[in-house]
Amino acid sequence: MKKRNTFFIHTLIFTLLLSSWDGFSQTSSFITVEGEVLKPLKLTVDNLLKYTQTEIVAKGKDDKEHKYTGVRLIDVLDSAGVTLGSKLRGENLAKYVLVKAIDGYKVTFTLAEIDPEFTDQTILLAYKEDGNPLKKGEGPFRMIVPKDKKHARWIREMSTIKILFSKE
Questions:
Q1: Which of 1, 58, 154, 161 is 20 to 30 A from 64, comparing alpha carbons?
Q2: How far, rounded to the nearest angstrom, does the alpha carbon of residue 12 sit from its chain's CA centroid?
Q3: Residue-wise over 72-84: b if at least 16 C-beta within 10 A, else e?
Q4: pTM for the whole structure
Q5: Kind of pairing, strands 124-129 and 132-133?
């Protein structure tokens, strides 16, 4: 009986340790940029630190102001060789950005919504909130779209940014 209880306790402890280990988490520690790009990217937080850092103060879903730190989405797209700026015309205006989260949630942006030659909006690929890494369930990567009235495109736990052509 004593061996049985000891086995049960060890099994329970082992199971609890495995379930709390971040290695078993669905959260991706990198984000990919793919599709209609010249240079596909696989970015970690360390990679993002090499970009120009941007901070945005915006109201979160809790209706409180937070300071988000990250890089402008336009800078990431530019480094992947996405058609932007003066070349964003004609058929290239039919391209869009599909952003996916690890749970399958997806949102879209047109390139014109992101490109500063078309808009004054800054869309941020954030990895910090109020100076701290994004919490589990939020990060490690999150899209911040401060001018959207609803937070539906403030996608959490981002995994993929894919550039696609719109099809009729």
A1: 161
A2: 35
A3: bbbebbbbbebbb
A4: 0.81
A5: antiparallel
